[in-house]
Amino acid sequence: MASSTTGEKKILTLKGGDNEEFILEESLVLQSELLKNMVKEERVSSIPLPSIKSKTLVKIIEYLKKHAELTPSNKEEFKNFEKEFVNVVLEELLDITVAVNYLKINGLLEFCCQAVADRIKDKSVEAVRKIFRIESDFTPEEESEFRKETPEAFEGDLDDTTN
Amino acid sequence: MANGIVKKVPEDLVNSVLLRLPVKTLMRFKCVYKAWYSNVQSSTFISLHLNRTTRVNDEFILFTNSIKEEPNRFKVLLSFMSIDNDGDDLHPISPDLDMLYLTTISSNLYRRPLGPCRGLIVLTDKVNAIIFNPATRHYRLLRPSPFGCPLGFHRSIEDVGFGFDSIANEYKIVRVSEVQGEPPFNDFNMRERKVDVYELSMDSWRELNFVEQQLPQVDRYPCSEMFYKGASHWFGNTNMGVILCFDMST
């Protein structure tokens, strides 16, 4: 019998950054444009993803499974799952978002970007620099000029935390 | 952390996140990093940001108030209000803004605000016009139109339209005026229609060469002007119910 018999589930191995292996059905990873192309064009059965931490990969696979089970009747449940999914410390959410961007899982990417935006929108400039690991390239004079130009953007309770 | 290079998150992803932030946050975050600063002010970013669906919590109601300062002199204040989530109480979301360039002689604005069109609003009194961005609270006095009229004539503005020319990527204001003879020098019946167009990026006015003199007058009741599908529309003051239309790409 040919190996591509319909009904037979193809198995794929994903290898996370710390060499941990995840074995899953190939159909699940087709939600990722990147992996889909690898599977379809190169017919690989094991894909190394050295830039993605295993912890992050676990989360993403969890999402792929839930999303594959999505039907009109459990929409509400899925929405709650999504909410919980991004309810992690900001550092972890950014890791997930970067990985999802790399894997090109478009629906999830939209959702993660919005989640990041919602989490940082009330943050102070200093906190955002820490979160994105950016060093300011403005002089202190230029910075105080900004604050004078649009004082209302710097008013209110700004959040200095990075999580 | 080397030389302020964004290490953790690739630039295109940062961009996708920034596009989802409210304007007020962007005004603050533009001083995070020079690349962010130039990005959020680029016309590409602004178009993409405008095209994203407005989230309900970014919406507010804009009030124009006239405050009496002297007899026959009112200053114009803008208030930014929002409705509570649970109740129906209005509460201010940011301090009132004094429109320094605008005054009126009665408690009513000379003309109702024009727009919003792609995020901007135009406010006018008899002399000045201001273009205003309610999201950033920035406003700018427009250069006055240089087109007057000869001695012995009177020029009056009949109507104003505000819109966006998506071909030239340009905000424009169109003004229809009438130049009329003033006795004793000239006859009332000497009338001429003039149309001038203001372009925001140039901050300048130009007069159209060929104006159809038989245009009906524009009706001056509230809400009689609207910008739709690239053109300003007005109700014409005839008993036939005509609509005048000005294509903003003109």
Q: Can you tell me about this structure?
A:
The complex is a heterodimer of chains A (163) and B (250). With 163 residues, chain A is mainly α. Chain A folds into two domains: 11-120, Potassium Channel Kv1.1, Chain A (2-Layer Sandwich), CATH 3.30.710; 125-154, no CATH class. Chain A has eight helices and three strands. Chain A has a three-stranded mixed β-sheet with strand order 2-1-3. In chain A, β1 and β2 form a beta hairpin. Chain A starts with 10 loop residues before the first strand and ends in a 14-residue tail after the last helix. With 250 residues, chain B is mainly β. Chain B folds into three domains: 11-49, no CATH class; 57-109, no CATH class; 111-247, no CATH class. Chain B is 12% helix and 42% strand. Chain B has four helices and 14 strands. Chain B has helices spanning 11-18, 23-29, 34-40, 43-51, and strands at residues 61-70, 73-83, 90-104, 114-117, 120-124, 129-133, 138-141, 153-165, 170-181, 191-199, 204-207, 225-228, 231-235, 243-247. Chain B has a four-stranded antiparallel β-sheet with strand order 4-5-6-7, with no helix packed on it. Chain B has a four-stranded antiparallel β-sheet with strand order 8-9-10-11, with no helix packed on it. The radius of gyration of chain B is 22 Å and the shape is globular. Chain B starts with 10 loop residues before the first helix and ends with a strand. Mean pLDDT of chain B is 82; it is low at 1-6. Chain A binds chain B through residues 94, 97-98, 101, 109, 113-114, 116-118, 120-122, 124-125, 128-129, 132-138, 142-143, 146-147, 150, 152-154, 158, and chain B through 1, 3-4, 6-10, 12-14, 16-22, 24-25, 27-34, 37, 94-95, 136-137. Chain B: This is F-box protein cpr30. Chain B: Pfam families: F-box, FBA_1. Chain B: Residues 114-250 form the F-box associated beta-propeller type domain. Chain B: Residues 10-45 form the F-box domain. Chain A: This is SKP1-like protein. Chain A: It comes from Nicotiana attenuata (Coyote tobacco).
